[in-house]
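Worked example 3 (structure in, sequence out).
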C-alpha cells in the first residue's frame, strides 16, 4: 500500500505526517510555523520533518500539502495570505518537490479538509458534501461526485464571507456582516465583550463553558450563534441542497449547546428545497483532518492524472 507525505500548514503550526492510502496515519510531527522567519526556513523544517518520518516509516510516493489561501492549486504558488506574511510568491510544489524528489499536490487547506471528510469521514455520500470549519474564521469546500468544486480559474469559493447581515461588524474582506464576522469563534468573543465591556475578552470555548453554567449573557451569545450559523447554513442548503454538510473546527466542540436548534432553524428557513435530504453532521476526523486532507489531495490529483494518461 502506498504511503503519502502529508503537510498541513497553518498560521500557527505546521504538521507533517506520513499517511497510508487507506487513511491510517503512520507518523506525525509538528512545529510552530513562525511565518516571519520566512518561506525558505519553513520549507527546510518541513523537509527535515518529512525525512525524519521517512527514516521511521520508509519511502513515500508523493507529498500532499494543505495551505491557507489564496493560492494556486495547479502551480502551488502562494498568494497574499493574511496569516503567512511575506510568503507571497513562494512555490510549494517546486520547493518541496525538488528537495524530496517526488510529485507534490497543493490544495487550499479548507478544500483539502473537505476531501478528507469525503473520503474518510463518518457520513459517506456519492453526492455533494460541503465541509465547513467554524473556528478563528469560517472556511469550507464543496465536493461533488468525488471532485472538488472549483470556481473560475481554479479559485476557491469563500463560503465564510457570504453576506448575512449588512448591519454587522466590518470584516477584513471589507464586507460588513459576512458570515465569518458574525459566527466565528472571535465573533462570539467580540459580541460578548461589546455587551459587557467591563469583562475581559473571552474565547468562544469560555463563553460556551459559561453558558453551561446558565450565565444569562453567555446563553444569549449561544442563541445569537445559533441564529447566524443557521442563516449561513440555510443559504448553503438553498443554493446547493447538498447531501451532507459536515461541520468541524473549534466552535463545534461545543455543538451540543446549539446544533439541534441550528438544524431546526435551517429546516424552517429552507422552504423551497427538500431540506430534509441534507444531513447536517459533525466532522469525525477531528485533529487529523488537515493531514488526512493533504494526503487525499495528492491521491485524488494522482488518480486524475493517471486517468488522463489512460484516455490520451
Ligand atoms: Zn468577511
Amino acid at each position: 500500500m502506498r504511503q503519502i507525505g502529508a503537510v498541513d500548514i497553518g498560521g500557527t503550526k505546521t504538521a507533517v505526517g506520513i499517511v497510508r492510502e487507506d487513511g491510517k496515519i503512520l507518523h506525525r510531527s509538528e512545529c510552530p510555523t513562525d511565518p516571519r522567519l520566512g518561506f525558505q526556513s519553513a520549507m527546510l523544517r518541513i523537509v527535515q520533518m518529512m525525512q525524519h518520518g521517512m527514516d521511521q516509516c520508509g519511502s513515500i510516493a508523493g507529498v500532499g500539502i494543505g495551505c491557507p489561501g489564496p493560492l494556486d492549486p495547479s502551480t502551488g504558488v502562494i498568494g497574499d495570505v493574511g496569516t503567512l506574511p511575506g510568503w507571497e510568491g513562494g512555490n510549494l510544489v517546486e520547493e518541496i518537490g525538488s528537495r524530496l524528489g517526488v510529485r507534490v499536490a497543493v490544495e487550499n487547506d479548507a478544500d483539502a479538509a473537505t476531501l478528507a471528510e469525503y473520503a474518510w469521514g463518518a457520513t459517506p455520500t456519492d453526492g455533494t458534501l460541503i465541509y465547513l470549519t467554524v473556528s478563528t474564521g469560517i472556511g469550507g469546500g464543496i465536493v461533488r461526485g468525488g471532485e472538488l468544486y472549483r470556481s473560475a480559474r481554479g479559485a476557491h469559493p469563500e463560503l465564510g464571507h457570504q453576506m448575512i447581515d449588512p448591519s454587522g461588524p466590518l470584516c477584513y474582506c471589507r464586507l460588513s456582516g459576512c458570515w465569518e464576522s458574525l459566527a466565528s469563534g472571535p465573533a462570539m468573543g467580540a459580541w460578548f465583550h461589546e455587551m459587557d465591556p467591563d469583562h475581559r475578552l473571552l474565547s468562544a470555548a469560555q463563553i460556551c463553558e459559561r453558558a453551561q453554567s446558565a450565565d444569562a449573557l453567555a446563553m444569549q451569545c449561544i442563541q445569537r450563534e445559533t441564529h447566524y450559523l443557521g442563516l449561513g447554513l440555510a443559504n448553503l442548503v438553498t443554493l446547493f441542497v447538498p447531501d451532507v454538510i459536515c461541520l468541524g473546527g473549534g466552535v463545534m466542540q461545543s455543538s451540543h449547546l446549539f446544533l439541534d436548534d441550528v438544524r431546526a432553524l435551517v429546516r424552517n428557513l429552507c422552504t423551497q428545497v427538500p431540506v430534509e435530504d441534507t444531513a447536517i453532521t459533525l466532522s469525525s476526523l477531528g485533529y487529523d483532518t488537515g493531514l488526512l486532507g493533504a494526503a487525499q489531495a495528492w491521491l485524488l490529483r494522482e488518480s486524475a492524472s493517471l486517468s488522463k494518461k489512460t484516455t490520451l
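Notes: The chain has two domains: 3-113+287-311, 124-283. DSSP finds nine helices and twelve strands in the chain.
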